[in-house]
Structure formats: structure tokens, C-alpha cells
Amino acid sequence: MFSIEKISGVVHTWLASHLPARIALLSEFVIVGILMISLFAFLGLVLVFMERKVSAYMQIRLGPNRVGPKGIFQTLADTLKLILKEGLRPTGADKFLFNLAPYIVMMVAMLLMAPIPFARNVQIWDVNIGVLYISAISSISVIGILMAGWSSNNKYSLLGAMRSGAQIVSYELSAGLAILSIVILTGSLRVSDIVASQATGWWIFKGHIPALISFVIFIIAVTAETNRAPFDLAEAESELTAGFHTEYSGMQFALFFLAEYVNIFIVTAIGATLFLGGWMPFHIGGWEAFNHIMDFIPSSIWFFGKTFFLIFIIMWFRWTFPRLRIDQLLNLEWRYLLPIGLFNLLLMTVIGILGWHF
Amino acid sequence: MGFLGEYIRTVYKSVASLLKGMKMTGYYFTHHKEIITQEYPDNRDTLILPERFRGEVVMPHTESNEHRCTGCTACELACPNGTIKIITKFEVSPEGKKKKAIDTFIYHLELCTMCNLCIVACPTDAIKMAQSFEHSVYKRADLTKVLNKPGSKLMEGVE
Amino acid sequence: MLEEIGTTEQGDLIINVGPQHPATHGVLHLVITLNGETIKKVDPHLGYIHRSIEKMCESLTYRQFIYVTSRMDYLSSHINNHGCALVVEKGVQIEVPARAQVIRVLMDELTRVASHLLWWGAMAMDVGAITPFFHAFREREMINDIMEETCGARLTMNYMVPGGVMADIHPDFQRKVKEFVTEFKSKIDEYDELVTGNIIFQSRMKGVGFISKEDAISYGCSGPVARASGVSCDIRKWYPYDCYSQLKFEEVIRTEGDSYARYLVRMEEMRQSLNIIDQLIDAIPEGEFQAKTKAVLKLPKGEFYTMVETARGEFGVYVVSEGGTTPYRIKFRSPGFSNLSALDHMSVGGKIGDLVATMGTLDLVIPDIDR
Lengths: 358, 159, 371
Fold this sequence. Notes:
The complex is a heterotrimer of chains A (358), B (159) and C (371).
Chain A: H1 4-18, H2 21-58, H3 74-84, H4 95-112, H5 130-138, H6 141-151, H7 155-186, H8 191-196, H9 203-206, H10 208-225, H11 237-240, H12 250-275, H13 288-296, H14 299-318, H15 326-354
Chain B: H1 2-30, E1 56-58, E2 66-67, H2 74-78, E3 84-92, E4 98-108, H3 117-121, E5 128-130, E6 144-146, E7 153-154
Chain C: H1 2-5, E1 13-17, E2 29-35, E3 38-45, H2 53-57, H3 65-68, H4 77-92, H5 98-126, H6 131-151, E4 160-161, E5 164-165, H7 173-196, H8 199-205, H9 213-218, H10 224-227, H11 235-238, H12 259-281, E6 302-309, E7 314-321, E8 329-333, H13 335-341, H14 343-347, H15 352-362, H16 366-370
């Protein structure tokens, strides 16, 4: 059956048999890099289109419907427009940092792609500290945002960047604790181990209520970490016009925009991997025929299906809720999510030690 | 213990209120028949505007190129913006009687606010409001219109 | 260097909110002084959309000047026109037929509901929820259709003339209004589910933008803003015009004085407006829709003042006449101007988010403020 694993295997053997080992490895690097960049662009297009359609249906509208059938080429047309637009830089802006910021934000998103298992045995880098790597790298993006806000020489941007800094730094704690609770159950930081441990059932089902609580906390925390509504204070439209990227235009703006959506994809992919079994199909114990049908669905579809489901939930949040105020945002983290998360971690540890999980 | 109970109750209430809102948007997400937007330029043929809709001032002409305007300038006086300018002339009837008639009825669409005061003021119902609303043109001068058609005459019996 | 960064000598940040800013709903310019996120001073700068409507009215006749007032508070243009028609009727002493009075009040209340609906959507957008805006427009569209059918326009109706209304109601009017009322009664509960009960919304609104009863009076606040602080100031109750004196409705008063109270007052006012429409829609008396008036109206020498309750508060028209066909001097008392003056008092000490939320509940219409 068709699978990414087999195709990559075929490509690898062909390259290894026709080229010297080093050049084969190098060309594999190039192929993977190109694939990643095209996945990036594709995800950006798809997610922006999805967001516009989801918002339209929730707002009893039709959404984009002019470019292509059902408007599916709308985002492509938007991208073309953004590429053709002039990139403006305000006088008094720090030229070097201003131009660097979007690339840093983008680079963080790219680096985070590495340890994500897209399908069975398809992973760019199965590092043994995968989960730690994810938490470490994702905190770099705040530097890009602060850089953009400060270098724009605009007070709105600066306020947006400061808000974003406070927000990301505090919500990382909760996201980290939620991830940690799964690490406790699995006993490994390696992402492939975590997925393999869910072969008999996803952690959200196996880990009782504490797993469910940490899943909810994780979703809330990553929504805040990616600056999505109701936590979009960094770009709070009605307060700070566009927050940290107010002064960006053209392709530089598009990079921020793209990074935002790719970041959503990455965090939900991590959520799906940790809590919903990654590429593992859905099994119900004892129902052999049902399980067999589930196995027949390719693992990459399982992975993307779960991820897009989580993305939909995050979009659902955005189009329903009002925005929080900055002090309420921090209150929510320090007064509710963090204590609950810590207590939950304790419960999880007890469950892990006593082996109460399935 | 009271504090903890209060804490848990707050969390429960907040989550419940949030889920209520999500249920609402979720309902609209899944029920596409509730969509109210129309695809405007495509539905031009089926678009029906109420007969009272005020789009622009027009002067109806009969098939024999006759209108009902006597050139009394009541509409010009009623207009708050100076939208209407009537130039009159004297027509000599076959009997040799001199009679006042309109030469040109100038209507500045760019100044008009569609307040309907001219229509109300007209004693002979010579002008009325049309339902057209797509007024965009490339030149501003195109908005200045002459409402009486060339060679048109006053209808018989209208004083 | 200080001027360049835009800070005060104490090191506070000065930010220009507007004239082009998503939160100001128009071309309002607020110069705010910030200490971190906390607001120290709000200084509204006006005049960006000043069209000297008062001066323009001096060259227009008493029939003509009514349409200009639609362009002030464009969301309650009908009620503005009503106030102007009333002042002419007072001066010329025209008796308005009963049918015209009822039609006027019905239209006023529909306009009030439409205005509050737009406020509801825009205010929800100010606090970050975008979906309610579209849901509010769905119902507002029904009112606009009714207006379009009877008055001939959707926003600047110019339906009021001295002595009555310009045309009789459309034959479908009563049926459509009834349809709207039944539809809207279920939808307003939906609004409560989507926004009012939401914990995030409540925490954004409660205790924000407080103004006490005494301050509301001394700032000259009117309408829902004053009524949320416990000031009884509904013109419809205190100085009833047309057929308001015969109607049963409640003046909505709350005493909290914060943004949430202003929100609840407006939500309840929508229900009260529906109540008024319910009372009148089946009881439109037969008769003339317009009193017989002279072609040229002349107000006697003297001063005339009338006031009406718009969706934003007390709208007053003050006319000085020299006995001619045009007013000698005209002055409009617009509710938005006085309400805006209290913004500084309300928002000092809050965060930027609070300023936006407070501004949302003030329901500012900038052309009304600048005129």
C-alpha cells in the first residue's frame, strides 16, 4: 500500500546505489529541506483558507468564493498580492533587527518541525530529548516578536511585543507541565517512544481524568502561546491596531502571518502526538473487525486528521470568545492553570508510580 | 474548604459559560441554511428593490416622447442642495400663444442626497425616484444628467 | 529626544489613538497618556468630521433642514428627524394626526432597536469577539428592509416632515414588523448566550469605566450611560412627545454605573422597545398620515426648544427664529458629545483594554459629536 515510509525507502536505496554515500546524504538533506519548505507554504495556504471558511460559517457568511471553485485559490491570490507589494520600513526603525525579526519567527517554526512524526516511521530527526527540544525551541519565538515590536519604532508595536513577552513566558509553564504529565506516564522524552507507548490506546483515554485535564490545559496554553484569540493581546486589533507587526508590509508581513499558522499546526501536532496517539489509529479493545478497518487507514491521514481537528477547536475558540485583558490573562495562568496543572502533575505521578493507567 | 469549593465552582461556571457560547457558534457552523449573505453581482436578476426605494431622480417619458414637467421650478426651490437646475424657454404654439416650457432639466446626481423633497414638491408628478443604485462612473461629469429627452414635449392637458 | 519618543517629563508614554484606529468607530482622536498599560489621561480631540451642520441649517428652510440631521447621528437618524419635526410643529402650531404620531413612534422604536443592535455588535468587536457583529447585522437587516419598504431608504430615511410623515406605511409594514418582533425575541436570548453570559465578557465589563450618579449628572450624560448610573432621564417618560404618554413601558435604570450596567441597560431597552412596538402595531388608528400645512412654513419670532430620546440619549433642537422662512440660529444638543466628555473620568486608572471596552459601551457616533 502507498505510504510515505515506502516512498522514502525507495528514494533512499536508489540514491545510495547510484551516488557516493556523502553526496547521497547531502541530496537527501536537500530533498527533505525542499519538502519541508513546500509543506510550510502549503500549510499556510490551507490553514488560512480553513480559518476564513470556518469563521465565515460561524458568522453566517459564505466566505471566500470568487477565486477558483468555492474560492479555494483565494489564499494563493492573496499570497501573490503580498509578494508583489512593497515592503515598507518606517524611518527611525532599526533596519537590521526590523528585517531579521520575521526570519527568526519563521526559523523557530521550521526548527520545531524536526521531531514531529508525520506518519509511521516518518520523522526528520528522532532526537532522544524530543519533548525538551520542542519546549526549548518554542520559547525562542518570543525573541522574534520582541525584536519586531522594539525595532519598529512604533508605540503600538512595542506595547504588543511587551504583552506578548509576558504572555508567552507565563504560558510556557503550563504547556510544559501538561507535556510533562505525559512524559511521566511514558518514561521517555523521545517522541517516537511516546507514540509507540500509545499503541494500546491514546493517553487521553488511558490516563483517566488527569490526562484529560492536562489536555485541556495544554490546548489553552498553546492557544495563548501562539497568540491566538481569546489570547491575541499581542496583536489585539481593536486596541493596538495590529500589535507587533503593525509596521510590517508585503512579504515580511506574510512571513509573520505564515509563521502564526505554521505555529498553530506545530503545537496542535504536538498535542495530537502526546495526547491523541500521533499517527496511531483509533482502536477499541476487543473489536477486532473494527480495529482492522482502522488499521487500513494510512497513518499519515490519522496524524493530519487529529491535528486538523485540534486546529478546528482552536479556530472555534477564536470565533466565539472575546479577548481577555492583560491582567486577566496573567491571572488565568497564575491563579488557575498553574495550580491546577501542578496538582494534576502530582496526581499523574501517583498514577504513574502505582501503575493505575491502562 | 469553603475557599476550595468557591474556587471549583468558579472554574465550573466559567467553563460552562464558555461552552454555551461554543455551542452557539458550533450550531451555525453546522447549519449552512442559516447563511444570510447573498452573492451580489450574481443575483442582479433576482434582486427586487421596494418600489419606494430612492435611487435617483428620473423623469418618465411616454412613448410619444412626452413628459409632464411644466417648468414651474417647485422642485428646484424645494431641493436643499441645489441638485436641480431648470432652464426654461418660451414655446410658441401654432395659435401664436407664448407658453413657458422646459429647455433643459439638469440634475446633479453627485449632489443629490435622495431626500425625496423634490418629488413631494412637484405639482404634476413629472419626476419620480428610480430604483437604480449602481451609480459609479469613471468621470465626475457623467453624474450631471439632463433628464428631459431631446425633442420631448409637455404632455397635453398638464398645466 | 523626548519629543521623538513621545513621552512626558515623568516618563509616561503618549499614544495617539486615532483618528484612524479600529476602536474609535470613526475619526475620533484620543491622545492618551500611559504609564505602562495603565491609563493616566485621555484627551479627546474633535473636529475631524465637522461639517458645520448648524451653520448649514441657517440657509435651509424649515422643511429642508430636517434631512441634514440624519447625517449627524446616522444610527438614529429617524429620531433626530423626529426632534426637528417637533420643533417646527411647535413653532407653527401644527396638530399632528393620531395615525402619524403612532407611525412616528413605531419607527422611532425600530430605529432604536437597530441602533442598539449595531452597538451590540460593534461593542463585542471592541472586546475582541467578531462573530456577534454578524449576528447583530442579521436582525438589523430585517429592520433595514422594513425601513426601505416604507421610507424608501435604509439609513438616512428623511421620513419625517412637519405635520406627520412623508408617506403612508407600506401595506406589508404591520406583517413584517410582527415577523421581526417574534424572530427577534428568540434571537435576543441567543445574544445572551453568546455574549452576556460569557465569563470573559463579564470580567472585561464588570467594574470597568465606573461613573457615579453625581458625576454622570455633572458631566451632562444622558441616555443609557446616565441610566446605568441611576439617573432617571428618559425624555420619553419625563417630557413625553407624540403618543409616548399613552404607552406602558419601563424606564430601565441600573445603579452599578460600570460598563456591564450600561450593557445591560441597552439590552433591556431593546426588550422595552419591542414591548412598545407590540402595543402599537395592531393599534395604528385610521386617518391622515400628514396634517395639512402651508407650502411655506414660517416660525414666529422667538426661541423654540424640543428634545427627544435618541438611542444615545437626549437630543435637543434649539431654534431662534426672526420670523423668516429659515432659522436665524440653530443649535443641536447631541448626546454623544456630553457622553464622550466623561470618557476621561471613566477610564483613568484602567488598562488600554478597559478604555476600548468603555468606549464601546458609550456607543459613540462621531458625526453626532462633531456635527
